[in-house]
Amino acid sequence: MSTTAIFIEKRNQSICNVGLELISESKRLLQNNHKVIALYLTHEIDDEEINDISKAGADQIIIYQHELFKNYDTNVYTKALESIVKTYHFDCLLLGSTLIGRDLGPRLSARLHTGLTADATLLAFETENDELRLLATRPALGGNLFATIICPKTKPQMATIRPGVFPVETYDHHQTELIYFNQKIDVKPSVQILNVEKTEKSHTDLTKAKLIVAGGRGVQKSFSTLKEIAQLVGGELAASRAIVDQAIEPKDRLVGQTGTTVRPSVYLASGISGAIQHVSGMDKSELIIAINTDPDALIFDIADISIIADANQVLPILKAELSNQHQHQ
Question: Is the whole-model pTM more than 0.70?
Fold first, then answer.
């Protein structure tokens, strides 16, 4: 039976959603004769977290508990995962393409002498001669095309995958086997953490937003109106690369290949052409409304509702209508 392992990343003492996303997507793609295994490194075992991992579709959870896992340390986590992988010999190993995943993945692949596909946005599996093969797809050549990369000659086949790309499914009454890994960690922390100060953000994480109001180069002078619309509908403001490069909006508002991948219920794209670098970060939105003066704009290829008009003229009308509705509520 082949095995695919997923590293469950923890940040601020809580598990990150990307690990659950990768479990659910692997469970959806793989057949019953494959096992999806969660690698849960923690300084203290949380039954609620174990339950969340199980409901996401994990067939097994390998639990590695040690006080050294309270805070992320590159050397400690690399050594711990190396020990687990060399014990269980997984066919595939997936990590989130987060700050920690991008640090941990390459180091671990070097230790294991195997390949790594970084920053993938699409996963697929195929079986050839009873061997499981991972196909990881990611933007390439400046985002102008997508490349599917395979590393079939070494194991585990590794990839880091962007957060927010896949939904988390719920598998109620799913049977999950718990395995406790007790091997001694033969490494000392290389970093001593003296203090942790959390950066206060004025915005909600875009990956959790249900409604996003986004603007591009075509509405660069109308962002104050976009912000008011976002507030009126209880949504979040987002931007394309052109807006972030001009410092009109901060980088944490960037959606696309080099920013955040989102999948809200509604995505309003104003003055955005639809370049693949932007579309790759929002094309999984449930409803896409696009406003652009160019009838041939690529954004219309994926839009559910297309408005061919100058967004700078449409947005004030939309804001006035929303304001009027709020006054009568």
Answer: yes
